[in-house]
Amino acid sequence: MRSLIFAFSSAKLFRMRFIALALVPVFLAGSAVAADLDKVGVSVARLLEQGHYSRHKLDDSVSQKLLKQYLQDLDPNKLFFTQAEIDALNAQYATTLDDAILAGDLEPARQIFALYKKNVTARVASNKKLADKKFDFKGKETVQLDRKDAAWPKDAAEENDLWRKRVEAELLQESLNEHAVDPPAKTVKRRQDQLLRNLTEMDDESIISGFLGALARSYDPHSEYMSPSELANFEIEMKKSLDGVGAVLQSEDGYAKIKEIVPGGPADLEGHLKVNDRISAVAQGDAPFEDVVDMKLDKVVEKIRGKRGTTVRLQVIPGSATDPSKREVIAIRRDEVQLKEQKASAEIIDLTRPNGRPLRLGWIELPSFYADLGHSDDADAVSTTKDVSLLLNRLKKEGIEGLVIDLRRDGGGSLEEAINLTGLFIPKGPVVQSKDSNGKVSVSYDKNAQASYDGPMIVLTNRLSASASEIFAAALQDYGRAVIVGDERSFGKGTVQTMLDIGRFMPFFSLGSSDAGALKLTINKFYRVLGGSTQLEGVKSNIVLPSLTDNPEIGEGALPNPLPYDEVAPQRIDRSDLSPVIGQLSALSSARVAADPEFRYISEDMDRLRKRITENTVSLNLADRKRELTEDNARREARNKERATRGAAVEAVAYEVTLDNVDKPTLEKVAYDRKKKGSLYDSADDDSDDVDPKTADGKKTAKEPIVTDAIRNETLRIEADLVDLQKTAKTASAHTSDRTPATP
Questions:
Q1: Which residues, listed in sequence order, are joined to residue 654 by a DSSP beta bridge?
Q2: How confident is the model at residue 675 (pLDDT cuts 50, 70, 90)?
Q3: Does the annotation mark 467 as catalytic?
């Protein structure tokens, strides 16, 4: 059993997949397997009843939640079922799903899915006819964007009208697409065909996996059933390495398209596979090719992934080909791929203060709290703490005077890594408390006798910082060790999950134990050392900066079935009082933010975003949409002109420190204000790609300037102020005690 605190996002949320994935077992077809899946359902139900933090029995109340969650998962925008069908499903299943699951009968899940598939099939046929209809786009109608909180259509007539508007909206959107390859009607019909293909390709494993996932999330948002393939993907995400070819796929117009080549991976070293190439067929070794056009992306992934040392052949349409019939065959030998860009990285930033004084700061970006599941004791095991320690040692060697840990979009990961990483910055002591379902409170301690870094420090968070990120930030805030800067609060996930292999609880399971999948089960809640929980509340920033992610629709409270907030007794710790310093920092920052044009842009974008969320509609009038696009373009151009006249937002020189160059004698100087892959640039008008965009005729346009990361800039300014204030405080303290003043 692996006790970890996991990221708040599920593998199911990712739209792109790594093709360099570990080999994953797949369920076999047949009635015997269907019976085994029904047994899996019983085991999942019993584990939830007996092991979940709530210890809630699978009763009628859970059955009602399950049906609601399953229907929401199938039809999140409430477009494929009518209210009459929902009423019938509620009458038949709302209080009987619990009994069926415990009896080893998952047929209700299959029947509900069959009805959904029937409705989608009929709807796709009618939508394709709608796509051929001629719309003049001159009316004053609007279409609702997000229908998750809307009522189900009351009857077929209302459902037809909803779909007529949505198809019209898609046609209008495509008619406004300057880079469209095909006519709007053809594009919309192709999407409808793809929707139906994806549904048709779902086997019994996929159906039951979705149903059991809904069952788990009926207990809380972070309990999750994982099929074997989902479990393998999750472990890869935690380990940050895998066996495969080293590329990233995304689905586009029926093809699996190369989105990214992982540096140093097999595909990169082989050299022929390129970004924008499209895969048309896949072959294992010398076996015949299998066509993968219009195949579901996950299925293509399964065919390309494989064991280290084996060969996969890809038949691709080169992205640079002018003739779409051109094909190339690329053979790649699978090998281990280190996902280095998803690991910790750092920068040394040399700032010039307004008074002309140079200041060297360190910046560590941490995308997740990753670990090598099941192999943490190995000397070469992947470890967030080990990687950050290497980077931190280099930063200290280079003479940094202050440090920022950037946790924006860090969804969490390993609890052990969160505790150990905290230990790099505090003396020996408690880091986090946890409470089990019996009310027993346990305390986890940092065992390092001495902190690795004790200088001025900021932890930068936003609403997407969750779970392990919140443990780390909360501990440093409670100890008075760091100033928390960012959104009003972090995500608010204060629960602990463990991973259970379902097959181990099924002695008579006919398939291998790994084929039963796993249950990510919420077993504990965690609490800050001062007693409060981050559950729902998150970690509140000491200094709040305007940000587009600071939206109440992002966070634990926006998820279904969250566990409540509560508190436990505080721990005794030696803590520093940063409140006087924070007050000065906040005043200095507020004055700068008020005068910073980039934050004015962010505030304007936040207002538009709030208005868009509130209105929740888009116009079906072509003239109105063109006017909106014209206004958007004019605003973007005006901002870029303003940026050009202002020059650099921060006078700085940066040096990139990675796990590859951390031990090299010299570091390369890089542009401070640059677009980094995977980094967070918060301005809404920053939609430029890493390559120059092209017009419809294929000619390159002028590339727009890089949009400043205003939050990064202001965080560095706050850190510089923190260095100055703490240096002044130390100097004053030295004078008071008749010691030699510190050098300014």
A1: 349, 670
A2: low
A3: yes
